[in-house]
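Q: What residues go here?
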């Protein structure tokens, strides 16, 4: 990247884990971020939450971060 930060909409839970060069923005509008956070916290089965978890895991692998469990 040439001085620009990539932007990524994520649930509020991920905002503190913002890697250098990437800006996490909170999801807005109906159903966000509370619905995602509750589904993640209580491990509610959901294709959308499963995809979000996989995206987060991929980002952790690619950026060499440590995923807190």
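A:
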């Amino acid at each position: 990247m040439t001085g620009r930060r990539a932007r990524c909409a994520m649930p509020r839970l991920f905002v503190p884990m913002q890697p250098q060069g990437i800006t996490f923005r909170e999801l807005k509008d109906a159903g966000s971020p509370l619905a995602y956070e509750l589904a993640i916290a209580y491990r509610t089965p959901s294709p959308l939450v499963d995809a979000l978890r996989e995206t987060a895991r991929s980002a952790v692998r690619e950026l060499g971060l440590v995923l807190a469990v």
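A: Context that may help when evaluating the design: Helices lie at 34-41, 47-63. The two ends are 30 Å apart (CA to CA).
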